[in-house]
Amino acid sequence: MLAAVGPPAARRPDPQRYAMAKQQQTVLERQYSRLGLLLIAPTVLVFCAVIAYPLVSAIYLSLFKIFTPTLEGTWVGLDNYRTLLVKGEFWTSLRANLIWTVGTLTLQIIFGVGMALVLHQNIWFRSLARSLILFPYFISTVVAVLVWKWLFNDLYGILNHLMISAGLIDWPIDYLGTMPNAMISVILVGAWKYFPFVVIAVLARLQSIPDQLYEAARIDGAGPIARFFDVTLPQLREVLVVIIMLRAIWDFKEFDLIFLLTGGGPVTSTQTLPLVVYKEAFALNQMGMAAAYAVIMMLIMLVFMILYMRRTQREDT
Amino acid sequence: MKNPSMISKGISRRGALQGLVATTAVAAMPMRASAQDVTLRWWSPQGAPAQVDAYMAQIAAFEAANPGIKVVFETTSDEGYAPQLAAAFSSGEVPDIVTHLPSFAIQSYYANGLVEPFNDVIEAIGADDYYPGANDVFKAADGNYVGTGIGNSAANMLWLRKDLMAEAGISDAPRTWDALRSACQAMQKNGIYGAPLPYGRNSMTTLIFVGVIHQAGGQVFDTDLNVALDNQATRDALEFYASMRELCPPGATNYSWGEAITAFVSGATATGIYTGRVLGNVNAQNPPIADSVTCVTYPTKSAEIPAWTFNDFPSVFIPKQSNNIGAAKAFAASLFNPDGYIQQLHAAPGHVLPVLKSINNNPAYQSNDIIQKYPAEVELMSQAAAGGFNLGYESANHPSNDKAGEVVGSGVIADMVQRVVLNGENADQVIGETTAAIDSIMNG
Lengths: 317, 444
Description:
Chain B: This is ABC transporter substrate-binding protein. Chain B: InterPro entries: Bact_solute-bd_prot1, SBP, TAT_signal. Chain B: It is found in: Periplasm. Chain A is mainly α. Chain A has helices spanning 15-61, 79-86, 88-120, 126-132, 135-138, 141-152, 158-165, 181-206, 211-219, 224-252, 256-261, 273-283, 287-316; strands spanning 64-67, 72-75. Chain B is α/β, with parallel strands linked by helices. Chain B folds into two domains: 35-153 and 312-386, D-Maltodextrin-Binding Protein, domain 2; 157-310 and 411-443, Periplasmic binding protein-like II (D-Maltodextrin-Binding Protein, domain 2, 3-Layer(aba) Sandwich), CATH 3.40.190. Chain B has helices spanning 4-10, 13-35, 49-65, 81-91, 103-111, 119-125, 162-167, 177-187, 203-215, 232-244, 257-265, 277-285, 325-334, 338-347, 357-360, 363-366, 369-373, 375-386, 404-410, 412-422, 427-443, and strands spanning 38-44, 69-75, 97-99, 148-149, 157-161, 271-274, 293-297, 315-317. Chain B has a five-stranded mixed sheet, covered by helices on one side. In chain B, strands 6-5-7 form a three-stranded antiparallel sheet. The radius of gyration of chain B is 25 Å and the shape is globular.
């Protein structure tokens, strides 16, 4: 029996010394744990200050009716949530939000992966092209929107001018003031602005795929398309998961680009939830209602995150 | 050559800390010194380069006369001032003086205890020097003045090209909607559109359409401030606005103030709708049409309905949370000193019109090239603006509406225009829903 097996008596530690060592170890452990707490305290404090406090604060604000300029309010409980859920504006904005997010994210992934594949090839001016491709991502959104508004302009815009000159249209196209043009334009500009992020991430992953995999595929007779779907895409899966997750969150809460391009119009066709939050908080001066919208937005993103993480976990297992 | 280890040995931890403390103390010294001075922050949405130059001259004159007071000018925008001020008020980081905001915005702030009464500043400027009734729009329910006008503006003047009218065989400026439509139809050719009316989801569409409702003989609120939209006048206004859509550029669906003035000044539209800023811009940016430009008050549904001019009553006011109210009031009064005030008005001649009789009669003000070139137009705008109204003050019989700023900010009136004109929704239903939405804001 294992219990009967023990060290020889000569090697057995002195119980007193053993107890002292044990006590010293306990003291040391306590000191280490205190030090550990001390060391992680700044992180915990920063976490509380920048994440926990605003989150709790937003939830707390959402239970009040608050006049923004004075921040004076009255307790309304869940009334703000009840009101917004029965409001058509919430559902139309959520719909616009989802169309925008899915549309622009899809295009970002397609353009981003495509461009990364091109820039991965041994082409002329590759370094220059890799630098220039980042330009839309680094440019200020305000500047980008101004440029696009000029391109879209009905009277002086180059797009309308070229299309009229080419005889494709007789009258200028109203890109931002009618549907579905406005939504399509916003989605396209969003894709143009943010696809370089996908390019950077995918290009980095492409450079680390072993050449042997492609060689083996070639030996097996795989053509370029088969190599892309059977080698490249599976290798990109993990990085694409991260990109889609991050960009979905960022696109879902995108504000400045849409606000500056269309202001949410025509009517509320491109009005996403962040624009409603802004309108409630600063145009209608209803900070409590704005906080309620923001909390609902967070919950929606949380649901997507959980579903997405569960799915990826299931695929991993 | 120095030995790096000697350098590192020469700086002890205590020494480094002492150095850090000494550096911090030195860095703090100028801050303490400057804290003894007063710095005033001045916000305005009117930030054209010439106007900013005029403001700088006014600031320089005030600073020279008041050593120890510094004024910093910061630009806001017509579409952005409301959120910026809401954030400023809620954070307590307010500007010390704000100019050129519409009167209805201040009434709303004053009603919530955010604005300092302005009575003493008006007295300092000279209450008798104002045109009669010029400050009525700034009178609050408690009898105090919430601010004062820094100028008048006639924001919905109809601008016309006499050369295009002559080509189209139009002899008289349109007085009614029918005449305007016919004129625009006749002049819309060769790549030139009839009018640049705004159909965007913005405050310009709201403010211009409020004027159109009045031009149809209607009003948004009755004299008890109940919503009074649901009537034939609003339906007529929507019908007129919809009928003008085909006479406006395709992109008018997104037009605000900037696009509207550019369309007329560049020659892309035969008529325009704007303040007197058109005069300066045409002369600077498109001189070939400068001699052909004129303006009239915007037409109404029928000749029996009087013109209704939208005057936002560009204002001056002082937030109550300012730490330098005394200095801010002194600076506010100094903005009306003749030299600086005239320079400011000349920066956009005809755009912001004087509220003081002594300034309008001052030869220095009248000597401006633009004012001399277009005396009839400037005089007409002055008269129209003096008798003008806005959503916060719809008529002389209306009390001040301190919710007007929120109604404009909500965009419900612009939404109503877009839903009926662009989406073709049923006007009765949309008017009903808009009435309910405004009611909700009024009672909110």
